[in-house]
Amino acid sequence: MSIDAILERAVNGERLSMEDAVALYESDEVEKMGEAANTIMKKWHPEPITTFVIGRNVNYTNFCDTYCRFCAFYRAPGSKEGYVLKDEEIFKKIEETVAVGGTEILMQGGTNPDLPLSYYTDLLREIKKRFPIWMHSFSPAEVWKIAEVSGLGVEDVLRELHEAGLDSMPGGGAEILTEETRLRVSRLKITWEQWIEAMEASKRVGMFGSATMVIGFGESYEERALHLQRVRDAQDRSNCFTAFISWLFQPENTGMWKTKKLSSRDYLKNVAISRLFLDNIANFQSSWVTMGPEVGKLSLQYGCNDFGSTMMEENVVSAAGTTHKVNTNQILKLIREAGKIPAQRNTKYEILHLFEGEEQAEKDFIMQN
């Protein structure tokens, strides 16, 4: 079956159906999908600019009572290998981030049943007293755990976190938004409805978030299409997502190590289909942390307009044996090699610095970072 008609409809601004998405997943014409996705990306972003944010991932605790089969990072509550970072350690990491021009802290950890709401609100207030930094932190699963421990509703918890200094919420833990896959790989994790509820509630209390997707758990094409449909529906209702990020499950060192690892071609196909289907989300991030810099660069031709974060620190993906460290200098180089103009942005996707025709200024910036 030819996918030309589907791609033509998408490029012309028509909404794709779940059946269309499944047909695209079944096709191997990945380059053709990439070309159409790139055309749509240019409608959102006509200038040849690829953005990135200078940020740090701070994994404040690895204690977790969700026990996902695919996670190599967590330690059970009470484990001698578990930790909760001291406040001073967190402050030091943020201080180092600010010193190199960083603007974003992605703080996330396990669902720790021993941390009350006051731990988070006190920490956020102390961070904001000390640093002019954007806190893009705590995934829906963590927020639901805080709600469970505190006895409050999710929206009330998010309101208190926001008032204490939380600025926006990452969409980690979405994996595949179907109960079939979630029950198989993370039986104790929040449901897909709870994930959506938390993201929409974040918008109601004055924040925004990002949507994520992880493929490679053995899910069906229909499940992938349903995931995209549920993200698009939530965005229609609440406009809670500024960006979409997808990546591949990394089975190494996890309880699902026998799972067949998908290829970079699978990743690029998913990026393209997501851009074609999600017609109401402006920004698509490249996942170079899991895919590597070269595939990350290639994804800029498959619908991505953003290179994500410099990720000064990343412990969850690297625990599964996959980590690609890229400094600011290399990000600038990779974006240029892709034929784009690099630009530093903030979490709201506002451009802070455009690296165009200013070689000396760029050299100075690289030396500082």
TrEMBL record:
**Keyword 4Fe-4S, does the record have it?**
yes
Entry's Pfam families? CofH_C, Radical_SAM
SUPFAM superfamilies under this entry?
A: Radical SAM enzymes
> GO:BP terms for this protein?
menaquinone biosynthetic process
Query: According to the UniProt entry, what is the EC number of this protein?
Result: 1.21.98.1
Query: Which cofactor names does the annotation list?
Result: [4Fe-4S] cluster
Q: Keywords for this entry?
A: 4Fe-4S, Iron, Iron-sulfur, Menaquinone biosynthesis, Metal-binding, Oxidoreductase, S-adenosyl-L-methionine
Swiss-Prot/TrEMBL catalytic activity: dehypoxanthine futalosine + S-adenosyl-L-methionine = cyclic dehypoxanthinylfutalosinate + 5'-deoxyadenosine + L-methionine + H(+)
* Keyword Phosphoprotein on entry: no
According to the entry, every stretch annotated as the Radical SAM core domain falls at 50-294
Cross-referenced SMART domains:
Elp3 (SM00729)
Please state what class of enzyme this protein is. oxidoreductase
Q: Which residues are involved in binding (3R)-3-methyl-D-ornithine?
A: S139, S287, S309
Q: How is the cofactor bound?
A: Binds 1 [4Fe-4S] cluster. The cluster is coordinated with 3 cysteines and an exchangeable S-adenosyl-L-methionine.
Pathway(s) where this gene product acts: Quinol/quinone metabolism; menaquinone biosynthesis
Q: Which residues participate in S-adenosyl-L-methionine binding?
A: F70, E175
| Function text | Radical SAM enzyme that catalyzes the cyclization of dehypoxanthine futalosine (DHFL) into cyclic dehypoxanthine futalosine (CDHFL), a step in the biosynthesis of menaquinone (MK, vitamin K2).
Which family does the entry's similarity section mention? Answer: Belongs to the radical SAM superfamily. MqnC family.
Protein name as it appears in the record: Cyclic dehypoxanthine futalosine synthase
Q: Which organism is it from?
A: Halalkalibacter oceani
